[in-house]
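quick one: 3-isopropylmalic acid bound model?
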Amino acid sequence: MKANIVLLPGDGIGPEVVCEAVRVLDFVASKYNHTFKFTERLMGGCSIDKYGSSLTDETLADCQSADAVLLGAVGGPKWDDLAAKDRPERGLLALRKGLGVFANLRPVKVHPALMEWSPLKPEKLQGVDILVVRELTGGLYFGWPKGRDIKDGRERAVDTLEYYDYEIRRVVELAFKLAKGRKKKVTSVDKANVLESSRLWRQIATKVGAENKDVELDHMLVDTASMRLITDPAWMDVIVTENMFGDILTDEASVLAGSMGMLPSASLGESGLGLFEPIHGSAPDIAGKGIANPTGTILSSAMLLRHSLKLETEAAAIERAVDETITAGARTADIGGKLTTRQMADEIINRT
Ligand code: IPM
Ligand code: MG
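yep, here:
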């Protein structure tokens, strides 16, 4: 197969980890006879520096016409000015919206050999295999009105938590569909005791549940869910939730895996085009040192093969290679080892 993949390495450690994922994809292409064409573009802080905008129209258009987009990370202290007109994160949000990727899949599995790196007791981590499906193009991140003004002589800031029925339905339906290939259990997380948007969310989730009786549905308040994730993570299968709750819960869930550097994500919409990125950030403290863990990005490239290119065998081969690499004891610094980013990727490529 032939595929066009846009690379957005971004800021901080982004370029280092994306470069290794591309080596893995190149290896897969030659082993399985595919042709992957890579086009690299700037997005985030690096794009502000060069073009004065975190995401240019041209870059968005290139991403929209690609088969898939692989992203590293954006942001860093250089662009952290709270009063700045543009921020690296704005580019990321505009990209998600512009690609229509309304569902963000964040799988959290715990490799037995990495349990000691999690702050949780190993017995709590047995059998943990969670898929968080986070709504990605609605809610507080995008609701209108948003902004600052002066009201009654006081400075005021406003964000709006807004959801339309169709935005809730499509992401909840996807969660149910994904649950059917797993343990057939969906936990819908909301704050229905307080928020109107959560009451609509719960009503629609209940309807979708009634249409999919082969899947068990639970509703859970977000505060309870945050506790349950730590006290009994093995109980969870698929979690579906709105944008902001999903942002917070996935950082919490990531510590179960021992290191954020291990975890991938896929953002999907109605079309096959997806956006794939590790869940870690730009890690400015270690950027340029060549020691970042490339595993999350390499696993994101496996999700890219599965979801956008429909290459399940190739995706599974990368995931198996990562598994074996960790079992064999290969480790970057975040999980207690000394391997460089390049060496860790080589270990994975050798087993793919
Ligand atoms: C994430 C990040 C982003 C988000 C930031 C960088 C805008 O935290 O992908 O989880 O909040 O969605
Ligand atoms: Mg986040």
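The longest strand covers residues 2-10.
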